[in-house]
Amino acid sequence: MNENFLLKSDGALRLYFEVAKGLPIIDFHNHIAVADIKTDKKYENIVDLWLNPDPYKHRLLRICGVDEHFITGDAEPIEKFQKYCEVFPFLAGNPVYDWSRMELSAVFGIDDEINRKNARMIYDKANEMLRSPEFSNNGILSRFNIEYQSPVATLLEDLSCFDGRKTAPSLRADDLLSPTEKFKIELSSKSGVEISDDATYIKAVCVMLDRFSASGCRFADHSLDSGFFEDDTYGKKTAMLVALGNEYAKRGWTLLLHIGAKRKTSPRLLSLAGPAGGYAAVGEGFDISKISDLLGKM
After folding, report:
1. Do the beta carbons of residue 96 and residue 88 sit within 8 Å?
2. In the predicted model, what is the mean pLDDT of residues 66-71?
3. How far is residue 150's CA from residue 172's CA, in Å, rounded to a whole number?
Protein backbone atom coordinates (compact mmCIF):
# COMPACT_ATOMS: atom_id res chain seq x y z
CA MET A 1 0.00 0.00 0.00
CA ASN A 2 1.46 3.35 -1.00
CA GLU A 3 0.46 6.93 -0.27
CA ASN A 4 -1.50 7.16 -3.54
CA PHE A 5 -3.85 4.36 -2.51
CA LEU A 6 -7.34 4.94 -4.02
CA LEU A 7 -6.20 8.18 -5.70
CA LYS A 8 -6.80 7.35 -9.34
CA SER A 9 -6.63 10.74 -11.09
CA ASP A 10 -4.56 13.91 -11.15
CA GLY A 11 -7.48 15.77 -9.59
CA ALA A 12 -7.69 13.30 -6.73
CA LEU A 13 -3.95 13.59 -6.12
CA ARG A 14 -4.11 17.38 -6.01
CA LEU A 15 -7.14 17.46 -3.73
CA TYR A 16 -5.54 15.07 -1.28
CA PHE A 17 -1.92 16.23 -1.20
CA GLU A 18 -2.47 19.95 -1.72
CA VAL A 19 -5.66 20.37 0.31
CA ALA A 20 -6.84 17.49 2.49
CA LYS A 21 -3.67 15.89 3.80
CA GLY A 22 -2.59 18.83 5.95
CA LEU A 23 -6.02 19.58 7.39
CA PRO A 24 -6.76 18.82 11.05
CA ILE A 25 -9.07 15.98 12.05
CA ILE A 26 -12.45 17.00 13.48
CA ASP A 27 -14.10 13.83 14.76
CA PHE A 28 -17.54 14.19 16.34
CA HIS A 29 -18.16 10.50 17.07
CA ASN A 30 -15.69 7.78 17.95
CA HIS A 31 -15.47 4.77 20.25
CA ILE A 32 -12.20 5.35 22.05
CA ALA A 33 -12.85 4.25 25.63
CA VAL A 34 -13.16 7.16 28.04
CA ALA A 35 -11.17 5.22 30.64
CA ASP A 36 -8.32 4.71 28.15
CA ILE A 37 -8.05 8.47 27.60
CA LYS A 38 -8.21 9.20 31.33
CA THR A 39 -5.48 6.70 32.23
CA ASP A 40 -3.48 7.14 29.00
CA LYS A 41 -3.67 3.38 28.63
CA LYS A 42 -0.49 1.42 27.93
CA TYR A 43 -1.24 -1.56 25.70
CA GLU A 44 0.14 -4.94 26.69
CA ASN A 45 0.35 -6.14 23.10
CA ILE A 46 -0.99 -5.55 19.59
CA VAL A 47 -4.04 -7.72 20.33
CA ASP A 48 -4.98 -5.51 23.27
CA LEU A 49 -4.89 -2.46 20.99
CA TRP A 50 -5.89 -3.80 17.60
CA LEU A 51 -8.08 -6.90 17.89
CA ASN A 52 -9.81 -7.09 21.27
CA PRO A 53 -11.76 -3.79 20.95
CA ASP A 54 -12.66 -4.12 17.25
CA PRO A 55 -16.04 -5.80 16.54
CA TYR A 56 -15.53 -5.42 12.78
CA LYS A 57 -12.53 -7.75 12.93
CA HIS A 58 -14.46 -10.08 15.25
CA ARG A 59 -17.29 -10.27 12.73
CA LEU A 60 -14.95 -11.28 9.92
CA LEU A 61 -13.27 -13.91 12.05
CA ARG A 62 -16.68 -15.47 12.72
CA ILE A 63 -17.62 -15.34 9.04
CA CYS A 64 -14.40 -17.21 8.29
CA GLY A 65 -15.37 -19.94 10.76
CA VAL A 66 -12.83 -19.13 13.47
CA ASP A 67 -13.80 -20.59 16.85
CA GLU A 68 -14.96 -18.05 19.44
CA HIS A 69 -12.10 -19.24 21.66
CA PHE A 70 -9.76 -17.24 19.39
CA ILE A 71 -12.02 -14.16 19.22
CA THR A 72 -13.47 -13.33 22.63
CA GLY A 73 -12.28 -16.46 24.42
CA ASP A 74 -9.23 -17.07 26.58
CA ALA A 75 -6.78 -18.04 23.83
CA GLU A 76 -3.31 -16.54 24.20
CA PRO A 77 -2.81 -13.15 22.47
CA ILE A 78 -0.37 -14.60 19.94
CA GLU A 79 -2.90 -17.31 19.07
CA LYS A 80 -5.61 -14.69 18.42
CA PHE A 81 -3.22 -12.65 16.33
CA GLN A 82 -2.15 -15.64 14.29
CA LYS A 83 -5.77 -16.56 13.59
CA TYR A 84 -6.50 -13.08 12.27
CA CYS A 85 -3.39 -13.09 10.09
CA GLU A 86 -4.28 -16.58 8.85
CA VAL A 87 -7.69 -15.51 7.50
CA PHE A 88 -6.58 -12.03 6.45
CA PRO A 89 -5.74 -12.86 2.81
CA PHE A 90 -9.34 -14.02 2.34
CA LEU A 91 -10.68 -10.59 3.38
CA ALA A 92 -9.55 -8.77 0.22
CA GLY A 93 -12.41 -6.67 -1.10
CA ASN A 94 -13.77 -5.93 2.38
CA PRO A 95 -12.98 -2.43 3.73
CA VAL A 96 -11.48 -3.98 6.88
CA TYR A 97 -8.77 -5.48 4.68
CA ASP A 98 -7.64 -2.00 3.67
CA TRP A 99 -8.22 -0.49 7.11
CA SER A 100 -6.01 -3.14 8.71
CA ARG A 101 -3.15 -2.48 6.33
CA MET A 102 -3.49 1.28 6.77
CA GLU A 103 -3.61 0.96 10.58
CA LEU A 104 -0.40 -1.06 10.77
CA SER A 105 1.31 1.26 8.31
CA ALA A 106 0.17 4.58 9.82
CA VAL A 107 0.69 3.68 13.48
CA PHE A 108 3.61 1.25 13.39
CA GLY A 109 5.21 1.79 9.98
CA ILE A 110 4.63 -1.91 9.26
CA ASP A 111 4.00 -2.55 5.57
CA ASP A 112 4.68 -6.29 5.49
CA GLU A 113 2.04 -8.58 4.06
CA ILE A 114 -0.42 -9.71 6.73
CA ASN A 115 -0.56 -13.50 6.68
CA ARG A 116 0.17 -16.45 8.95
CA LYS A 117 3.78 -16.64 7.80
CA ASN A 118 4.46 -13.06 8.90
CA ALA A 119 2.25 -13.13 12.01
CA ARG A 120 4.97 -13.69 14.62
CA MET A 121 7.28 -11.11 13.04
CA ILE A 122 4.54 -8.45 12.91
CA TYR A 123 3.41 -9.33 16.44
CA ASP A 124 6.91 -8.98 17.90
CA LYS A 125 7.71 -5.80 15.95
CA ALA A 126 4.48 -4.07 17.06
CA ASN A 127 4.82 -5.22 20.67
CA GLU A 128 8.36 -3.84 20.85
CA MET A 129 7.07 -0.41 19.81
CA LEU A 130 4.16 -0.59 22.25
CA ARG A 131 6.65 -0.67 25.13
CA SER A 132 7.60 2.91 24.27
CA PRO A 133 5.73 5.84 25.92
CA GLU A 134 4.99 7.24 22.45
CA PHE A 135 2.68 4.27 21.88
CA SER A 136 0.34 4.87 24.80
CA ASN A 137 -3.30 5.60 23.96
CA ASN A 138 -2.85 9.37 24.02
CA GLY A 139 0.61 9.15 22.50
CA ILE A 140 -0.79 7.46 19.41
CA LEU A 141 -3.64 9.96 19.13
CA SER A 142 -1.26 12.92 19.38
CA ARG A 143 0.31 12.03 16.01
CA PHE A 144 -2.79 12.62 13.92
CA ASN A 145 -3.33 16.39 14.08
CA ILE A 146 -6.64 16.02 15.93
CA GLU A 147 -8.20 19.43 16.45
CA TYR A 148 -11.38 18.07 18.03
CA GLN A 149 -12.59 14.63 19.02
CA SER A 150 -15.76 13.46 20.72
CA PRO A 151 -15.60 9.92 22.12
CA VAL A 152 -18.95 8.44 23.10
CA ALA A 153 -19.72 8.20 26.82
CA THR A 154 -22.71 6.77 28.63
CA LEU A 155 -24.78 9.01 30.89
CA LEU A 156 -23.19 7.81 34.13
CA GLU A 157 -19.54 7.74 33.06
CA ASP A 158 -16.84 9.88 34.67
CA LEU A 159 -16.21 12.93 32.45
CA SER A 160 -13.18 14.31 34.23
CA CYS A 161 -10.81 13.53 31.35
CA PHE A 162 -12.57 15.91 28.95
CA ASP A 163 -11.30 19.47 28.60
CA GLY A 164 -14.41 20.65 26.71
CA ARG A 165 -12.38 22.14 23.88
CA LYS A 166 -10.12 19.69 22.07
CA THR A 167 -11.74 16.65 23.65
CA ALA A 168 -15.43 16.53 24.60
CA PRO A 169 -17.89 13.69 25.19
CA SER A 170 -20.65 12.58 22.84
CA LEU A 171 -23.58 11.05 24.72
CA ARG A 172 -24.28 7.40 23.86
CA ALA A 173 -27.87 7.28 25.01
CA ASP A 174 -29.12 3.82 24.03
CA ASP A 175 -29.78 2.81 27.65
CA LEU A 176 -32.00 5.82 28.41
CA LEU A 177 -35.18 4.65 26.65
CA SER A 178 -35.63 1.37 28.57
CA PRO A 179 -33.74 1.93 31.83
CA THR A 180 -33.21 -0.97 34.21
CA GLU A 181 -33.90 -0.61 37.91
CA LYS A 182 -30.16 -0.80 38.55
CA PHE A 183 -29.58 2.07 36.12
CA LYS A 184 -32.28 4.21 37.76
CA ILE A 185 -30.85 3.60 41.23
CA GLU A 186 -27.38 4.69 40.11
CA LEU A 187 -28.82 7.66 38.20
CA SER A 188 -30.76 8.76 41.26
CA SER A 189 -27.62 8.54 43.38
CA LYS A 190 -25.45 10.51 40.96
CA SER A 191 -28.05 13.16 40.10
CA GLY A 192 -29.42 13.66 43.60
CA VAL A 193 -32.98 13.30 42.25
CA GLU A 194 -35.35 10.70 43.70
CA ILE A 195 -36.91 8.85 40.78
CA SER A 196 -40.54 7.85 41.20
CA ASP A 197 -42.08 8.35 37.74
CA ASP A 198 -41.24 9.40 34.18
CA ALA A 199 -41.16 13.09 35.09
CA THR A 200 -38.62 12.64 37.89
CA TYR A 201 -36.64 10.26 35.68
CA ILE A 202 -36.32 12.97 33.00
CA LYS A 203 -35.42 15.48 35.72
CA ALA A 204 -32.60 13.22 36.91
CA VAL A 205 -31.38 12.68 33.34
CA CYS A 206 -31.34 16.46 32.83
CA VAL A 207 -28.98 16.90 35.76
CA MET A 208 -26.54 14.58 34.00
CA LEU A 209 -27.12 16.25 30.62
CA ASP A 210 -26.05 19.54 32.18
CA ARG A 211 -22.84 17.86 33.32
CA PHE A 212 -22.25 16.70 29.76
CA SER A 213 -22.85 20.23 28.48
CA ALA A 214 -20.36 21.57 31.00
CA SER A 215 -17.81 19.09 29.58
CA GLY A 216 -18.38 20.40 26.06
CA CYS A 217 -20.85 17.81 24.78
CA ARG A 218 -22.55 18.76 21.52
CA PHE A 219 -23.96 15.43 20.32
CA ALA A 220 -26.27 12.64 21.51
CA ASP A 221 -26.95 9.47 19.60
CA HIS A 222 -29.64 6.80 19.81
CA SER A 223 -29.81 3.50 17.97
CA LEU A 224 -33.26 2.82 16.55
CA ASP A 225 -32.67 -0.84 15.79
CA SER A 226 -34.84 -2.85 13.43
CA GLY A 227 -38.22 -3.28 15.15
CA PHE A 228 -37.85 -0.21 17.37
CA PHE A 229 -41.35 1.10 16.70
CA GLU A 230 -42.98 -2.35 16.63
CA ASP A 231 -41.53 -3.16 20.06
CA ASP A 232 -42.54 0.21 21.49
CA THR A 233 -45.41 -0.84 23.76
CA TYR A 234 -47.93 2.01 24.13
CA GLY A 235 -45.45 4.45 22.51
CA LYS A 236 -43.43 4.70 25.73
CA LYS A 237 -39.98 4.64 24.13
CA THR A 238 -41.07 7.09 21.44
CA ALA A 239 -42.45 9.49 24.06
CA MET A 240 -39.21 9.23 26.01
CA LEU A 241 -37.13 9.89 22.90
CA VAL A 242 -39.27 12.92 22.06
CA ALA A 243 -38.74 14.30 25.57
CA LEU A 244 -35.00 13.69 25.37
CA GLY A 245 -34.79 15.17 21.87
CA ASN A 246 -36.28 18.39 23.16
CA GLU A 247 -33.82 18.46 26.05
CA TYR A 248 -30.93 18.02 23.64
CA ALA A 249 -32.31 20.86 21.51
CA LYS A 250 -32.49 23.16 24.54
CA ARG A 251 -28.77 22.63 24.99
CA GLY A 252 -27.95 23.18 21.34
CA TRP A 253 -26.93 19.57 20.74
CA THR A 254 -27.21 17.58 17.54
CA LEU A 255 -29.20 14.32 17.74
CA LEU A 256 -27.81 11.38 15.77
CA LEU A 257 -30.16 8.51 14.96
CA HIS A 258 -28.62 5.15 14.01
CA ILE A 259 -31.32 3.51 11.91
CA GLY A 260 -31.74 0.15 10.22
CA ALA A 261 -29.45 -2.26 12.07
CA LYS A 262 -30.36 -5.53 13.75
CA ARG A 263 -27.91 -5.81 16.60
CA LYS A 264 -29.38 -8.59 18.73
CA THR A 265 -29.00 -11.49 16.33
CA SER A 266 -27.53 -13.97 18.81
CA PRO A 267 -28.28 -14.37 22.53
CA ARG A 268 -25.11 -16.48 22.82
CA LEU A 269 -22.86 -13.78 21.36
CA LEU A 270 -24.67 -11.08 23.32
CA SER A 271 -23.66 -12.85 26.53
CA LEU A 272 -20.10 -13.41 25.30
CA ALA A 273 -19.28 -10.17 23.54
CA GLY A 274 -21.76 -7.56 24.78
CA PRO A 275 -24.28 -5.47 22.81
CA ALA A 276 -21.83 -4.29 20.14
CA GLY A 277 -19.71 -7.37 19.74
CA GLY A 278 -19.53 -7.75 15.98
CA TYR A 279 -22.56 -9.88 15.17
CA ALA A 280 -25.05 -7.27 13.92
CA ALA A 281 -26.91 -7.64 10.64
CA VAL A 282 -28.69 -5.33 8.25
CA GLY A 283 -32.21 -4.94 9.61
CA GLU A 284 -35.54 -4.68 7.89
CA GLY A 285 -36.42 -1.53 5.99
CA PHE A 286 -37.74 1.16 8.32
CA ASP A 287 -40.98 3.03 7.92
CA ILE A 288 -40.08 6.57 6.88
CA SER A 289 -43.51 7.81 7.98
CA LYS A 290 -42.75 6.74 11.56
CA ILE A 291 -39.44 8.58 11.52
CA SER A 292 -41.25 11.64 10.15
CA ASP A 293 -43.87 11.38 12.90
CA LEU A 294 -41.11 11.09 15.51
CA LEU A 295 -39.33 14.20 14.25
CA GLY A 296 -42.67 16.01 13.96
CA LYS A 297 -43.44 15.30 17.61
CA MET A 298 -40.04 16.67 18.59
Report:
1. no
2. 96
3. 11
What CA–CA distance (Å, rounded) separates 208 from 227? 28
Angle between helices 116-130 and 95-108 (to 10 degrees): 40
Q: What is the DSSP letter of 17?
A: I
Q: Is 182 helix (H, G, I), strand (E, B) or coil?
A: helix
Residue 221 contacts residue 172 (beta carbons within 8 Å): yes
Q: Which of 140, 139, 106, 130 is nearest to 43 (CA)?
A: 130
User: Which residues does residue 172 pair with via DSSP β-bridges, in sequence order?
Assistant: 221
- Sequence-separated (6 or more) residues with CB below 8 Å from residue 193: 187, 200, 203, 204, 207
What's CA 146's distance to the chain center, in Å? 17
Mean pLDDT check: name the lowest of 68-77, 201-210, 223-232, 252-261: 223-232
Q: What is the CA angle 50-91-98, rounded to 5?
A: 60
* pTM, entire model: 0.88
Measured between alpha carbons, how far is 33 from 160 in angstroms, rounded to an integer? 13
d(CA 170, CA 168): 7
As a whole number of angstroms, the distance between CA 252 and CA 246 comes to 10
What is the spatial distance between Cα 221 and Cα 175, in angstroms, rounded to a whole number? 11
| CA angle, residues 285, 289, 292, in degrees to nearest 5 | 115
Q: Are 164 and 158 in contact (CB under 8 A)?
A: no
Interaxial angle between packed helices 236-250 and 288-297, expressed in degrees from 0 to 180 and rounded to the nearest 10: 50
Q: Under DSSP, is residue 185 helix (H, G, I), strand (E, B) or coil?
A: helix
**Cα-flanking dihedrals φ and ψ of residue 256, to 5°?**
-105, 130
Rounded CA separation 109/14 (Å): 24
Confirm if 195 and 206 have CB atoms less than 8 A apart. no
